[in-house]
Amino acid sequence: MAPPEPAVPAGPPAKPWYRQLYFWVLTAIVTGIATGWLWPAAGAALGPVGTTFVAAIKMLIAPIVFLTIVTGIGGVDSLGRVGRVGLKSLAYFQAGTLLALLLGLLAVNVFQPGVGVHADPGGLRLEGDAARYADRGSDQSWWHFLTDLVPSSAAGAFAEGNVLQVIFFSVLFGVALKTVGPAGQPIVDGVARLGTVVFKILHYVMLAAPVGAFGAMAYTIGTYGVSTLTSLGRLIALFYGTSLVFVVVVLGGVTALLRISFFRLLHHLREEFLLVLGTSSSESALPRLMVKLEGLGIRRDIVGLTVPTGYSFNLDGSSIYLSLAAVYIAQATDTPLGLGRQLGLLAVMLLTSKGSGGVTGAGFIALAATLSAVGTVPAAGLMLIFGVDKFMSECRALTNLAGNSVATLVVARWERVLDSARVNEILRAGRTARPLTRSPDPVPRRSAHN
């Protein structure tokens, strides 16, 4: 007879709905939209409110990534396990990126939103922020995410908030602590205690989340106007629809194979999704996402390596945007783009989609880098979509968040430490279990299929 499943540790009593963070963030988003629509000048002036909140979150990302990775590596019983987790994460990221790019190409070829626009490339001029982002994109080579991986100084990686460089240093630091043996254990314990303090700071910062979401949404609507949404409505609708199909069908199918309720998972992460929707930045939810995934019983080293790395290498929403936008520009400028050239675009986008997470205008910069590298689609066509790029950034960030959440579950299953029954029990209870600070023994294969 199989032993009974371990009980889910009881969390704090559930708060009333009107005291939940998601309620106040949602209220702030609606209020921000109304403010930007009714009083555009006032809405546009609220931009610093949103950017200040996002800056406060970004202030904590590098320390949280460092502390999580170091304590995760310090808690594993084998350094080989760390290497396995990293390689499996990268393999899944590449497969997810390829599926997202292919889905975007399929959608834009079937619905052809740019056909009939007949824009003259010679009459298009890149100006303002569009020109600045395009210049940054044209300066990036396909291998830039590899050459930028090693920081010039450890302090510089933290000061600049470069997540990839922080990951690189954190892994080296954690491996070094593990290899020195007992001498490194006090430092691991100290890092774990420091993590408790940093997450308490995060709790204080999150109290301002509704204010930040209000300011960011009011600025977006007040600056760009609701009418901007209708000017390129077909492209926007296709992008949102394609992303929804990817999330529900592809990611939902993956979680179904894991025997985990996908919609309960989305509900469990509702506060993070609303935060991303309000701020247009998936980074704003990264620290809380890591905490919640650990609370589902996922090993700390898996969360610490998969989630931050996924923010640079597993950008499903950005990949869909790249393929849709590139072919849309070709259609709108009457640029012939046959199957061979589209496959060439796909190969380049597999590389240019990496390493841009967390950079302002990251999706637009990656698109500019793609068009500059290929040369078959006029880069000046970027001006056609720049006006509505802000409204598509929310969808990119939401899809990226969903993709990285599912990726962490997949890697945990691949490592045979995902207890699907326990995860579903936590999701049904609606409470987060106490995070695992040490690595549990691998879950037998049979329990993962219960």
UniProtKB/TrEMBL annotation:
<feature type="transmembrane region" description="Helical">
    <location>
        <begin position="163"/>
        <end position="180"/>
    </location>
</feature>
<protein>
    <submittedName>
        <fullName>C4-dicarboxylate transporter DctA</fullName>
    </submittedName>
</protein>
<dbReference type="InterPro" id="IPR001991">
    <property type="entry name" value="Na-dicarboxylate_symporter"/>
</dbReference>
<feature type="transmembrane region" description="Helical">
    <location>
        <begin position="359"/>
        <end position="386"/>
    </location>
</feature>
<keyword id="KW-0812">Transmembrane</keyword>
<dbReference type="Pfam" id="PF00375">
    <property type="entry name" value="SDF"/>
</dbReference>
<feature type="transmembrane region" description="Helical">
    <location>
        <begin position="59"/>
        <end position="79"/>
    </location>
</feature>
<dbReference type="InterPro" id="IPR036458">
    <property type="entry name" value="Na:dicarbo_symporter_sf"/>
</dbReference>
<feature type="transmembrane region" description="Helical">
    <location>
        <begin position="320"/>
        <end position="339"/>
    </location>
</feature>
<keyword id="KW-1133">Transmembrane helix</keyword>
<keyword id="KW-0769">Symport</keyword>
<feature type="transmembrane region" description="Helical">
    <location>
        <begin position="91"/>
        <end position="111"/>
    </location>
</feature>
<dbReference type="InterPro" id="IPR018107">
    <property type="entry name" value="Na-dicarboxylate_symporter_CS"/>
</dbReference>
<feature type="transmembrane region" description="Helical">
    <location>
        <begin position="238"/>
        <end position="260"/>
    </location>
</feature>
<keyword id="KW-0813">Transport</keyword>
<feature type="transmembrane region" description="Helical">
    <location>
        <begin position="201"/>
        <end position="226"/>
    </location>
</feature>
<keyword id="KW-0472">Membrane</keyword>
<feature type="transmembrane region" description="Helical">
    <location>
        <begin position="21"/>
        <end position="39"/>
    </location>
</feature>
